[in-house]
Every structure is written in C-alpha cells, then in structure tokens.
Specification:
single chain; mainly alpha; two-stranded antiparallel ribbon; 3 helices; globular; disordered N terminus
Length: 82
C-alpha cells in the first residue's frame, strides 16, 4: 500500500497551478496614481513591491500604511496608489 501511495505522489501535484490563496494573484505591475482594489491575501509589502518595481519598496510601504490608516487591509478596500 505504501508503495502505491509513493508512486501516486508525483501525479498528485497541483497541475502547474500555484498553491497561493485564490484571489491573491500577483500578476502585472501596478500603476502609480491609480486606485487598487485589495484582494484576499494582499499585504502592504506585496503591493509596494509590485508598485516599486526594481527599487526599494520600504518607502512605499510607509506611504501606503499612512494612507490606509494602518497595516491591516480588507478585501474590497480601495487603496489609492502613490
């Protein structure tokens, strides 16, 4: 029985799909000056990283936190991007 389970493991993967929380996709860069709709699993750090591109995201994290009034985000919340 254990041999059968071990053989099934390679085929029991995710089929190339991410194990990330649905709705928390990180596709594409964000655009400054627009409004972002927060999705489940989003964090200020993740949003800032996408917005910053190849630069240090820490200043953006601080600005986003100030705009959001804290570090807690709620799905559906509108977050103006600096």
């Amino acid at each position: 029985m254990a041999m059968l389970v071990m053989l099934a493991l390679p085929w029991g993967g995710t089929g190339g799909r991410s194990l990330a929380t649905p709705g928390a996709a990180r596709a594409g860069p964000l655009v400054a000056g627009t409004t972002y709709v927060v999705r489940r699993g989003d964090t200020l750090w993740g949003i800032a990283e996408r917005l910053a591109g190849n630069t240090d995201p820490r200043p953006l994290v601080a600005r986003l936190e100030a705009q959001a009034g804290g570090d807690a985000l709620q799905p559906g919340e509108l977050l103006p991007l600096p």
